[in-house]
Amino acid sequence: MASRDNDQPSQTLAKPTLNETQASVLVESLFGLKVFRIEPLPSYNGQNFLVFISTTETQPDDQRLPDFVLKINTAVSNDIPVLFDVISHVSIFLQAAGFPTASLCLSKKNNIISVINLDHGSVTKSHLVRLLTYLPGRPAAEVPITPQLLFEMGRVAAQMDQKLEDFQHAQLSALHRENFVWNLKYVPLLERYLGALSLSDNREVIGHIIQQYREEVVTKFSQFRECINHGDLNDYNILVEPRKLASGESVYQVSGILDFGDMSYGYYVFEVAILIMYMMLESKNPIQVGGYILAGFESIVPLTYVERSALYLLVCGRFCQSLIIGAYSTHVHSHNSDFLVINTRQSWKNLQRMLDLGQNAVEEVWFETVKSYKAGKNSQ
User: Fold this and answer.
1) Is residue 93 part of a domain?
2) Domain at 247, CATH number
3) Which residues contact 45 (CB under 8 A, 6 or more apart)?
């Protein structure tokens, strides 16, 4: 089990700071691949690089897709390599089951994870290095979010959690990440970091939500169905590609699932709540989003009455996690502030909209949408 202090924001966000040259050297030394070009990618608590390998092909550079994604994480404790080994095997397991996840490349020493020590001035830090195949597609954040796409996202999320019931690993207990601040079990821990919000950021409102969460959600955990959660199905971790329907209409479908780094044991209802929160950020009709996602999720895994009754506050809880940890992280890593607070304004706006409408009104929109999908299915 991860130690109590592993996953607090100040340590979770201990980012590596390699430049492009250092990253290229890692690819060549660990994997024996000749790098043609390497480009940094935005990342929350690690470093990611797009990797282009030297080739004899004459395709123009601006038309080439990357070959791999290099992922580098700081091992802030002895538990982290075990955790990432489990997470890596989850990705392998899901790909074998037909889910659109990236393949992990073996190093020259036949490892899927390489542990290396790098000097950072007077300090030597341990890093975990992985190389993944590049998944084509566009982030969901870059395409129109339609009811059809939201339904599919919900369905895929439920299928993935359901399939993970079959996953086995000798160190599976590593996914019981105690006090992991991105797990919805631990929303009450956010009170420690409320000081990161200014009074103008509605600190009092967030504090009230956390108290409600403690009283009305935490007390129901024993009645939720447990599963392994991806835990971060946001609008940049879901890739989509267009496809043509028999009618000739072109729609987007899920083509890739990225970044399993926040995976942990949770509950089915956590996954759908997290997905709803992030997709609200990308919709012109954010309150309606939950109904379409829930309809897709419940087409595979219907929620129980108790799980449904907690969904509203679970979505609010995820907004609180994003806002508080984002604010805290901006203080710790000001150089990464643009990425950390990219959705802050929209998050506040959507959370306030949910609070203004109230739980009953929001639930009515969601549950009536689900009912209409079920009615349509029954009439076919």
Assistant:
1) yes
2) 3.90.1200.10
3) 12, 13, 14, 15, 73, 261
List Cβ neighbours of 227 (8 Å cut-off, separation of 6 or more). 161, 162, 164, 165, 265, 266, 267, 268, 271
Cα 31 from Cα 19, distance rounded (Å): 18
Do residues 254 and 153 touch, judged by C-beta distance below 8 A? yes
For residues 321 and 296, state if they share a domain.
yes
DSSP secondary structure of 327-348: HHHHHH-GGGHHHHTTTHHHHH
| Residue 90 shares a structural domain with residue 42 | yes
Residue 244: pLDDT band (50, 70, 90) is confident
Residues 110, 125 share a domain: yes
Nearest partner of 263 among 342, 380, 160, judged by Cα: 160
Nearest Cα to 279, choosing from 247, 341, 333, 233? 233
* Residues 363-377 as b or e (16 or more Cβ within 10 Å = b): beebbebbeebeeee
What is the C-alpha separation between 322 and 337, in angstroms, rounded?
A: 13
Average pLDDT, the chain: 88
Residue 116 sits in the same domain as residue 243: no
| Helix, strand, coil percentages for the chain (3-state, nearest 5) | 50, 15, 30
pLDDT tens digits along 18-61: 899 999 999 999 999 999 999 998 777 789 999 999 876 655 66
Structural domain total, the chain: 2
Contact yes or no for 11/333 (Cβ under 8 A): no
Q: Which domain range does residue 232 map to? A: 138-379
- The whole-number pLDDT of residue 59 equals 59
Q: Just list the catalytic residues.
A: 232
- The predicted model scores a pTM of 0.91
Q: Which of 133, 151, 167 is the last residue of a domain?
A: 133
Q: How far is CA 93 from CA 90, 98, 122, 197, in A?
A: 5, 9, 40, 40
Tokens standing for residue 224: 């939720």
Residue found by looking up tokens 């009450």 in the block: 188
Residues 84 and 220 both lie in one domain = no
CATH number of residue 128's parent domain: 3.30.200.20
